């Protein structure tokens, strides 16, 4: 569920590398212009909004669908009074006069809130893969629940993800037919859109309790049971309080849950439980991470003496690519509750997109944190440094071993200039080299280390992490 739930939550999806600088904003605007120009997305009914993150995510995933499977997928919203079957067929064939597919594989999702109808039009080349019955199932169980929660953009994105999943299965089983003309002969299915019609059964499910002595493994199996029985009750005791709040706000569908069962079940025999030094956090993981990328780690937090599943933190930190391989959002990995789960990734470095991998260089055996300091001083202290170097020299990070606690837990980087350590009454401003090194040696295992750094002496950042 966490995978497809995150993919449907398009404002979180594909955010790796999406900062707030001008060039990236321009790239998002370019994605929207490209979609408008090529008629990939036509929002005449103004249902999808213009959020740049959604536009970028939709464009990138749509491009992946075309690149990997040669499927030309388009979305149109309309307020037309013309019958949706006739309009879908007419629009489909007009748009396919300039088909992007080389093999006749094309799909059109038409949404009409005026008629309360949605239809997925299927080209002749895809009818054996996307049968009428299967398309109807995707609409009713995968997309319309989002529509009912007034999340039309999320529902359209979820449909694209489900189309991708089916295409992947078909390609693996070599079910695709030979290339043919890109046209529709009426294949597909229509359903009532039910936009804004809240489903009173959407958050229902029997209670699932947790005993104080039950392990994270037992809780994860109870979660699997909830998925298998389509229990969508957000207030299950297997969830942390933050996770219950998360599920109250987010749409969960039958297909979300079925897909999570499909991914989680084969991973269970491969999993190991890794407990944090604080005794309050645990991670169930399939190791090594770089060989088990489709087996997501699961986070657990002890609340009221019971282990509970922390999907709220997972949703903030984890991302999944089109092949359902997990990785981290680099901006979120060490924020908030995330610092308490970082220990489980000791020994792994992270690439620019947040994928963990095993580094080649080993950290020295006698190193606790795994960093090396150079020295710097304020220009005004040039003469003082000559007389009392220990008092005026400060630490500038010149090396951080990949996969070390300094990188994995604390997020230190070469180029960080150390300005302060600690917090509250124990904080030391303008920490000297000696003060910083003593602080890092003396932070108790399992306690939180807090270091204030500046990058290039400019941006001030507070880095927090749990000491090894």
Question: How would you characterize the overall build of this protein?
Answer:
It is a single chain. The protein has 468 residues and is an alpha+beta fold. The protein folds into 3 domains: 2-192, Diaminopimelate Epimerase, Chain A, domain 1, CATH 3.10.310.50; 216-357, no CATH class; 371-466, PDZ domain (Pdz3 Domain, Roll), CATH 2.30.42. The chain is built from 14 helices and 19 strands. The longest helix has 21 residues, at 152-172. The two termini are 32 Å apart.
Provide a compact summary of the structure:
With 468 residues, this protein is of the alpha+beta class. It is 33% helix and 21% strand. The longest helix is centred in the middle third of the chain and has 21 residues.
Secondary-structure-based class equals: alpha+beta
Query: What overall geometry do the principal axes of the alpha carbons give?
Result: elongated
Q: Count the helices. How many?
A: 14
**How can the largest sheet be summarized?**
5 strands, mixed
Helical residue percent band: 25-40%
Mean pLDDT across the residues is 89
CATH fold type of the largest domain: Diaminopimelate Epimerase, Chain A, domain 1
- Strand content is 15-25%
Total beta strand runs: 19
Strand order of the largest sheet: 1-2-3-4-5
Radius of gyration over all CA atoms, rounded = 26 Å
First-last Cα distance: 32 Å
Uncertain stretches: 8-26
Known CATH architecture of the largest domain: Roll
Count up the domains: 3
For this structure, what is the CATH class of the largest domain? Answer: Alpha Beta
Descriptors for this entry?
468 residues, alpha+beta, Diaminopimelate Epimerase, Chain A, domain 1, Pdz3 Domain, 5-stranded mixed beta sheet, 4-stranded antiparallel beta sheet, elongated
